[in-house]
UniProtKB/TrEMBL annotation:
InterPro entries: DUF1885 (IPR015062), Rbstp2229-like_sf (IPR036294). SUPFAM superfamilies: Rbstp2229 protein. Gene3D superfamilies: Rbstp2229 like protein, Rbstp2229 protein. It comes from the Bacteria. Transmembrane segments: none annotated. This is DUF1885 family protein.
Amino acid sequence: MDNRAWIRLVENSTQTEVSLEDVKERLERYVDMASRTGRQLGWSYEEAAFPYTMEERTENGNSWLILKGKDPKMYRGLIIGVKQEAAEKGGHHTIQILLPPGATHGDKSKANEFCRYLAKAFQGELRLFNGRIMYFYPRK
């Protein structure tokens, strides 16, 4: 199994370009939706739905979102980045989700959940950690 998944934006996606700030906004919206659900249920659901702190790092001109787990026994962290493919490969924008060494099964489960959420939000093509592909854009 691979330690990364990616979401590729295609012609039929809601947008053809994506930035790290766009991804960060979508994840903040995810946390907001979880907190609203928690208020309706009467418990802090956002802690269970998003058990990470989010920080942005830049190294060698590349920016990454680092999600650090709040409970290291259950969740250690994830790395999310955005890149643009070479023009020969179509020039598509891609969101990558990486499981760092030492990631837990909980991290992988949350990464799959975030992948599906982001792919649905951007209507992209999702390649999961196990190699399977899910299409969230309108196909002809």
